[in-house]
Amino acid sequence: MFKDGSVILFTGDSVTDCGRDREEGVHSPLGAGYPCMLAGKLGADNPQKGWRFINRGIWGDRVTDLYARLKRDLINLSPDVLSVLVGINDVWHDFQRDDGVSPKRFDTVYRLLLDATLEALPKVSLIIMEPFVLNAGEIAENRAYWSEKLPPRREIIRKIAKDYGAIFVPLQEVFDKLSETADPARYALDGVHPTAAGHSVIAREWEKAVFNK
After folding, report:
1. Does 14 qualify as catalytic in the annotation?
2. How far is 186 from 195, CA to CA, in rounded Å?
3. Which of 65, 94, 176, 190 is catalytic?
4. Which of 14, 80, 83, 199 is an active site residue?
5. How far is CA 58 from CA 92, 151, 211, in A?
6. 52, 133, 134, 150: least buried by Cβ within 10 Å?
7. Which numeric CATH code is attached to 7-211?
8. Predicted TM-score of the model (pTM)
9. First and final CA of the chain: distance in angstroms?
């Protein structure tokens, strides 16, 4: 999957964004989250490969927003590997402002996003990550809502990954298990936005899924 000189592009919402630089330069900072952690570890472990890492996550994005900026922030960058983490805001925006994305539309637009990507970049490798929440902060205060609304999106994403032959990175069960022996807030204070420990878990699970570790 990762040939010499590969461009690895991360896209998604605030979990991916995590304060990344908005400059367009080759060496633009990747933020403080899992994309930076992965770029650091993989780059250090494989210096001869010449891999380039790009972060195009944007705070607050839903799958419809990713699709709207598809040309600028994905296709024009010609990645060899595309990693997508989206789905939380499709639920959260419904809860907060009645501006979410229904499961049916979520499925449709996610597939449109991948179809358009593969049409323009037929050799791109796909990595699809599972959205997750932890029982902390605002999520804990509205647990019943999230327990009902997020699982359908996770099932959709799992099926899409299978249908498109993408690598799937499971995260919800991992965080659920960790929360059995530690305070969930250790991994995400508000239940959504990971701490450094939470991002480290995501990076570890991504590497395991991608490299079969």
Report:
1. yes
2. 7
3. 190
4. 14
5. 15, 23, 26
6. 52
7. 3.40.50.1110
8. 0.95
9. 15
